[in-house]
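Re: that chain you flagged

S.,

Sorry for the slow reply, it's been a week of failed gels. I finally had a moment to sit down with the sequence you sent. For the record, here it is as I used it:
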Amino acid sequence: MVKSPRRYYAITVVISSLFLISSLGACSNVDGVFLTPMAEGLGVSRGAITLYTSISGVTGSFLYPLAYRLTKRIPLRTVFVIGISAAAASCIGMAAARSIYGIYLFAALRGFGTTCYASNMVVLFLNRWFKDKASTVTGMALCTTGLSAAIFNPMFTSLILSLGYRQALLIRAGVILLTALPGALLFMKETPDRVGLEPYTTDKPEEKPRRAREQTHRAPLRFRSGLFFMLLVYIILSRATARMVDQLPGYAESIGWGPRVGALLASAYMVGTVFFKLVLGVINDAAGVIRTSLAAGLVSLAAVGILVAFPGSVFLLLVGAFLFSIMMALASVSVFALVRYTYGDEQVGAAMSRFAPLSAVYPMLLSVYGFLYDATGTFNAVFALGAGFNLVCLLAVVYIGTQARKESRLPDPGDGV
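Prediction finished late last night. Pasting the structure tokens below so you have them in one place:
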């Protein structure tokens, strides 16, 4: 039976995480509805404006190790507040920018801001509190990005149509502050030992030595290993594929459905992320991250087929967008579960800190989508590239599952997290 104080703090930790993560729905997951009006307003190509999302992602990836080290020197709450303020300021700056280069400059500021309080940091925060059911709690927290984006995508589409993208960006800055600051200021308890508790676990007292022994025998964290490389490939390509959501509004317009249907597709995708992040989190804990990731990858491939094969049906396009959102769950919940499965509780923070700057390649791939459309004039080429990335991810999971067992030096580590 969980004691009352422990339960109280566990609940407040989750609430804090929900507020922080939900703000990402306004900070980065609504980029898709801004791309076309920003490109038209600044008189640039779609590829050129899409590049700002790449700059933001690259900057965030390279600066994540710095943000991680900051948490060792100053309170985590302070790091979060710095990041939230920078992210909001970047939206204000973009609203004022009169050239594409100004957009790029403030995109870099946004990258710094989001890396200080985005998914990686919040998951590390949760990892301090939960040793068991970590994937379930992570899924619960990360699903709020989809829920908030499902609300914000149509909202910002309407605001852009009525007020213009510059006013919508100013409102976007306010939404970031209103959703993220309560999590950083009101609920946060950084570590359980601050309140005289231990991390949540379902272990019985006699099982704790076994868990400690297993965690010290996970795969060693080495740069020059096939396991590290394949995890990096999976992180890069799964996240690049998941960010194809930014292309859905443009795809809807290209096949004649207009911006409102495009916003509905983006919202269907974000609603799907709520569902699939929760489901994958639970299934990862119950059935194991390897089997779960393989099954989810096949669902994602089927979703791409639906989007390409049935452009004339809004219903089937919505179904395809919903199913394709499982890729976002893979790129977030399952990435952390795979790293934790491979390297264990004690090494997960250091591992993510090493992966972050190396995975900066993935935001660069986002601009490839825009330039590929500019070159071919069709989104089918974009979807084909995403399907190819997905296939490589499936192969990477097979390798990770096999090699992690060999390197863990455990007689029977199982497939779970």
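What I noticed first: Confidence is low (pLDDT under 50) at residues 209-217, 410-417.

Talk soon,
D.
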